[in-house]
Amino acid sequence: MATISQSLSKADAQTARGRLRLSPGLLTALPVLIFLALAFAAPLLAVLGYSFMPEGTFDFTFPPTLENYFAIFSGSYYISFAKSLGLALATVALLMLICWPIAYGMAKLFGRWANLMTLAVVIPLFVSENIRLFGWVLFLIKGGVFLGGLKAWLGIDAESMLYDVPAIILGLVYVYLPFTLFPMVLGISMVSREVTEAAFDMGASRWQVFREIELPLAMPGILIGGLLTFILSLGSLAESKILGGQAVIMIADEIETAFTFGQNWPLGSALSVILILFSGTLVLTLLNWVDLDRILGRGGND
Amino acid sequence: MQFDRRSLLRYSAAAGALGLAGPLASPAFAAREKELNILCWEGYNSDEVLDPFRRRTSGDISAESGTSDPDMINKLRAGEVNVWDVINVNQPWARDEMWPEGLINPLPKERFEPFFAEMMAPFNENYKWCYSEDGANLLGIIQRFGPFNFVVNTDKVSRATAEDEGFNLFNEASNAGRFGILTYDNWNIYHMCIGAGLDPFVPHSEAEIAAFEKVARAWFKGAKLKTDDLVAMNLALINGEIDLYLTGGTYTASPARLDGETNIRGITPKKGPLAGGKGGITWVEVTSVVNNPQVSPLAYDFLEYVHEPDACHAVAFAEGTYNPVTQMGNPKVFEKFSSEELDAIQWDSLEEELSNTVDYQINPDYDVMDKIYNEAKREA
Q1: CATH architecture group of domain A75-295
Q2: How far is A162 from chain B (nearest CA, A)?
């Protein structure tokens, strides 16, 4: 038996290899595969390669070294990583609190007004992020719309909140709100009315329904939204630069500095590799928890 | 013709292969006589500068502004020599980095050297940063320049005090919390050296590097505002949030001055630790032709065009920031500037300020100081 099954599987493998060679699917996918290899994998591999080159070099002709990674771990880059991480976590936490009632309303209560709400959130996305952030600068700067108005109308002379952590968080929350909101709306719309009604009928309190029914069922949307926002905030630059001055040096700022002013591509590459590894591990771990098919409504679970 | 699934696949593959090969093959066939790509500091990419040249040549002229000298040069190093025809960066880079690395072409001397005779002093006599070290090759032309040190609100700190005290103003404990740092990273480093009593353009001992570190950390801790946005910095100066900032000069103060805020003034210290006891630094842009294998002939025409009086004025007063141009030594160029524009670029003190400065050069200890600088900024 063993011999027969072995020879069968060998034959299967040969057929599979033959199919692989001739498969029209593979042939038609080839341009996309080549494009992805050139446009996605190659730059990442280049970054990975540079991260093992000696400090301040511009090509791959040197023997690989770990000196850039040692420099990062022995220096104070942890401050930028920690601050970026802290700001990203604060942004996600605030957006969860802000977006839940809005998303709940859009999914369950607003009816056709939800479309108007969607438009109101989407339309600002057509304006460049930097322009929107500069709008906030004009609003918040001393003598600007808000503080100038306070002084002219109420005689209150307040200090500008720009160029500090709260302003950066405001910018991050403002810019990344749609990235949390829409997956959350999708998640909440997966919670069927019958289930919550059944829970209420069985005597569950509002809090219990929220904690034990709505939150777990909407979790895929919440996780996707949170993850998107977290990754984008972690790698953000414009908010801290425009609204925060240089009060906080984000990790993306360190990478840009290494590549430009620092003229140190290997160091910038090593910082990028660490950031990519960190974000990638987080994404893969969380995506393992979430059933993407289910959230996209293609599920076989139902 | 029979057209079945098999032939569709075959033709698609052929079309795909052609599509992929097309961009690679195109340089071999393309003539770039009507195309010009310029990599520059902001200003040269404005329509005021480019439109007259576009009309004249009917060319497809595009320009992109960079965020720093190294950033622009890195683009060439990364293989974009095939893309750009003209590059505009500050003075040491052409002679010390781009020329030795084969990134730029020499200019024909007979065509471009006569322009120097009409420039203002000290640029009118074989300005050394335009030539290769052996003097044999002309590497670029010069146009925008300016002393670039620090900026004060003269209602709070008088020009005389600022010029006499120089960068020591930022060392005084009483000024902590009253100044800003315009984080043009690789330029702050030079002024922090001066603040530590060092010439940034010579090799430094360990003790001198330690002195630099002390100043870098103290200034970042003492700064009330740190941003790389010059408009925000000028607004803070006008609003009274700060009284002075480094790094700055004509380039950053001029937009506020043209808006009537003439109490915002770029300062060049009268004395300091630089060669000859000078206290400040002048930046001069050198514009070169890129060593593009298919370089556009329009690159050379463009360098000639920017010497015309109207073009000179457009370059000096392009959008954003305003700067003097070396061609103002030519009366036909000078008469293009109004008295308000001359006041915005501090024409009244320009000659005196230039005499108190040295040329911007590359700092031999830049790598070490850059690391310290970034640590100080991060840990402040």
Answers
A1: Orthogonal Bundle (1.10)
A2: 10
